[in-house]
Design goal:
elongated, Nucleotidyltransferase, domain 5, about 40% helix, about 575 residues, 23 helices, 8-stranded mixed beta sheet, Rossmann fold, 18 strands, alpha/beta, 2 domains
C-alpha cells in the first residue's frame, strides 16, 4: 500500500506508533489513533457499518499537497504544502471512512484541538478548497465562521491566496477568486467567511468554525449543522485551542468528544483529535511541549515554545495564556479558589446515582432566589457504604462521591444570555431540570428530596434558611431530618478548605457533571486576617449554588461545625 497510497500508509504508521506510545501524545490522541486501528479490523466484519476507502483518503491528501504555502519562509520559496504524518492521519480519517450502505462519508463532525502555530488554519483552508471544488457537491456552500471578522478570515484568507496562486485549480473548476468570496459559476458553489449565523436559506456542505472557545453560545454551529439537512455528506469542522469558559459550548463539545473516545457515549459520525497534555504531565517540561504540539520544530519552532514556557514559569500572569494557547489546557480564572484541573481528573463518567441506592448519604440544599438555580447536592462518604460501586471507588483512592440536581424556571432558561442553560437542559443527560413558569417550582424540588429519602439513607438535609423555611416545614412533616447551616464564615470556612483539599488530592469522585464544574470554577475567596474563607462569586451571572450546597453537606460530615437543627431554630425564635 505504501507505493499506491503513501499518505494512507503514513497515517496508519503514525496511528500505530502513537497507540503503542512510541510517539509522545496525550490520552485523547492515543484513543483517537486506537479507534482508527480498531475500526480497520472491525471493517472486515459484516456487523460494522463502515469501511475504509484508501482511494478517497489518498485523493484528498494529494489535492492538499498541490496547494502552495501562503506565508513564511516556505511561501517565499514558492513551496507546496506537505502533510506531516499526524496531518495525514486526521485527513485520511475524515475522508477515508465511508458507510458501506451508500459509500458516503462516515464522519459528519470533527472536533480538532491544536495549540497555536500548528498550522490548523492552513490545513482547514486547504480542506475548505477541496470541499468547494473536488468533493462532488453541486452548489457547494463552504463557510469559514467565527465571532469576529478578523478570526473568520484566518481560514478564508489562506484559502483565497492558495486559489490565487494555483492557476490550474481555477482553470480546472472554473473558480473565480473575488475580494470576499470564492465562486464557481458553473454550479453556483461558493466559499466565504461568515460572522454569526448563516443567512436564511443557507445550506452548508462544509462549515469550518475557528477558535470555538471564543463563542459564548452554540448558535453558529447549531445553525450551520441544522442547515446541512439537504446535503448527502456534509462536514462540520471545529478547530480551536483551549480556553477558560467552562460554561461555553466549546468546553461542552470537548467533554462530549472525550466521552465518545472513552466509549461512554456512542457517536460513530464524530471524529475527534485533541492534542494536549495528560493530567500528571509537568507543564514546565519539554515533553509537555512535544505532546501538545504535533508540529513541533516544523511550523512551530521549539525554541519559540521554550521561550514562552520560560516566560510563564517566571511570570504568573502569563501562565494561563501559555497553558491554553500552547498546551491546550483548559484553565480557570486566576481568582478561582478551586483547582478545576484536579477536579476534572477525578471524573468517573460511568458512575450513576442509582449505583448507591439504599446507601447512607447527606444532602445539601441551596434554594437561592426564585428565578435562579436551586441546587441539591447528594454526598456519600464511601467508607460508610457497602455497595460494589463504593468499593470500586475506594480501590481507586476516593473518599467521597457526589451527585447534583439543579432546577431552573423556564423563563430564566429562555433568556438570550443563558444559552449554556438550554444546552444543559436539552442534552441527553438533562443536567438541569426545567420547571414551568417564571419562578422555581419549589414543589418539584421538595418532591425530589422526598424521593431521594425513599431511595437512599439520608441522615439529614442541610439547608440555608434563606427561601427555605416553608419547604423545611413540609419536609419535617414527612419525618425527614433537616438541619440549618447558616451562611456564616464560621460555618463555611473549614468545609470549604476541606473541600479544596479533597479536590487537590483527587479524593472526591463525580460523574463529570458540567454544571457543577462550571459553578466550581466560579467560586472565588480571599482569606481574611485569620485565614478564614467564604464562597463568593465575582459576577452575578457566575452561579455557585452547587458548591455552596456541597459545603453545607460536607460540613455535616465534619466535627465542630456550628449548626442548628430546625427544632433548635424554632425554639429560639
Amino acid at each position: 500500500m505504501a507505493d499506491k497510497f503513501p499518505h494512507v500508509d503514513l497515517a496508519l504508521q503514525y496511528a500505530k506508533a502513537v497507540a503503542a506510545k512510541k510517539i509522545p501524545a496525550c490520552k485523547w490522541v492515543r484513543l483517537a489513533c486506537r479507534r482508527h486501528v480498531a475500526d480497520l479490523a472491525k471493517a472486515k466484519t459484516k456487523a460494522f457499518a463502515y469501511r475504509f476507502d484508501p482511494v478517497k483518503a489518498e485523493r484528498v491528501c494529494k489535492f492538499i499537497e498541490l496547494l502552495p504555502h501562503t506565508k513564511g519562509v516556505w511561501a517565499s520559496k514558492s513551496e507546496l504544502l506537505k502533510l506531516e504524518p499526524w496531518q495525514c492521519f486526521k485527513t485520511v480519517c475524515l475522508f477515508g471512512w465511508v458507510r458501506k450502505q451508500d459509500n458516503l462519508r462516515r464522519f459528519r463532525k470533527a472536533i480538532i484541538l491544536e495549540p497555536r502555530k500548528n498550522a490548523k488554519s492552513t490545513w482547514a483552508a486547504a480542506v475548505g478548497l477541496y470541499m468547494l471544488t473536488a468533493d462532488g457537491e453541486h452548489g457547494a456552500e463552504v463557510y469559514s465562521g467565527a465571532t469576529t471578522e478578523k478570526q473568520a478570515w484566518e481560514v478564508f484568507r489562506p484559502a483565497r491566496l492558495m486559489a490565487l496562486k494555483t492557476p490550474a485549480l481555477k482553470a480546472a473548476y472554473g473558480l473565480d477568486v473575488n475580494a470576499s468570496n470564492l465562486h464557481i459559476l458553473g454550479n453556483a458553489s461558493r466559499f466565504e467567511p461568515i460572522i454569526g449565523k448563516p443567512g436564511d436559506g443557507a445550506s452548508p456542505s462544509c462549515s469550518i468554525v475557528d477558535e470555538y472557545h471564543e463563542h459564548d453560545t452554540d448558535a453558529m454551529v447549531d445553525t450551520m449543522e441544522t442547515g446541512m439537512g439537504a446535503r448527502e455528506q456534509p462536514l462540520s469542522i471545529i478547530i480551536t485551542t483551549a480556553g477558560d469558559n467552562l460554561a461555553g459550548p466549546c468546553y461542552a463539545a470537548v467533554l462530549d468528544a472525550q466521552r465518545m473516545l472513552e466509549g461512554v457515549i456512542a457517536n460513530d459520525e464524530m471524529f475527534a483529535l485533541m492534542y494536549g497534555v495528560d493530567p500528571k504531565d509537568d507543564w514546565t517540561s519539554e515533553i509537555a511541549l512535544r505532546k501538545a504540539n504535533p508540529n513541533y520544530d516544523v511550523s512551530v519552532n521549539g525554541e519559540f515554545l521554550r521561550a514562552r514556557q520560560r516566560e510563564a514559569i517566571n511570570n504568573a500572569r502569563k501562565v494561563g495564556t501559555f497553558k491554553t494557547k500552547h498546551l491546550n489546557m483548559w484553565v480557570q480564572s486566576r481568582s478561582a479558589y478551586f483547582n478545576i484541573q484536579r477536579w476534572n481528573e477525578s471524573a468517573q463518567p460511568k458512575i450513576r446515582l442509582e449505583d448507591f441506592e439504599k446507601q447512607p448519604c447527606r444532602i445539601g440544599l441551596d434554594l437561592a432566589a426564585k428565578v435562579d438555580i436551586a441546587a441539591i447536592e447528594i454526598i456519600f462518604k464511601l467508607a460508610e457504604c457497602d455497595c460494589m460501586a463504593a468499593k470500586d471507588l475506594i480501590a481507586k483512592g476516593f473518599e467521597y462521591v457526589r451527585f447534583g440536581k439543579y432546577f431552573l424556571p423556564e423563563a430564566t432558561i429562555e433568556q438570550g444570555e443563558n444559552e449554556h442553560y438550554r444546552g444543559w437542559v436539552n442534552c441527553p443527560e438533562a443536567w438541569i431540570t426545567q420547571t414551568d413558569g417564571e419562578m422555581i417550582d419549589y414543589i418539584e424540588v421538595r418532591d425530589t428530596i422526598i424521593d431521594l429519602t425513599e431511595k437512599f439513607q439520608v441522615s439529614e438535609v442541610a439547608y440555608d434558611p434563606h427561601q427555605a423555611m416553608m419547604m423545611v416545614s413540609e419536609l419535617m412533616a414527612k419525618g425527614i431530618p433537616v438541619i440549618e447551616v447558616r451562611p456564616l464564615v464560621l460555618n463555611f470556612s473549614e468545609p470549604m478548605k476541606q473541600m479544596d483539599g479533597l479536590i487537590r488530592s483527587r479524593k472526591t469522585a463525580h460523574n463529570g457533571d458540567p454544571v457543577y464544574t462550571w459553578m466550581l470554577s466560579n467560586v472565588v475567596a480571599k482569606p481574611d486576617a485569620k485565614d478564614n474563607v467564604y464562597p463568593r462569586k465575582d459576577r452575578e451571572e457566575n452561579k455557585i449554588d452547587g458548591p455552596v450546597a456541597h459545603m453545607m453537606a460536607l460540613a455535616r460530615f465534619m466535627t465542630g461545625v456550628a449548626s442548628q437543627s430546625f427544632w433548635e431554630v424554632a425554639a429560639s425564635a
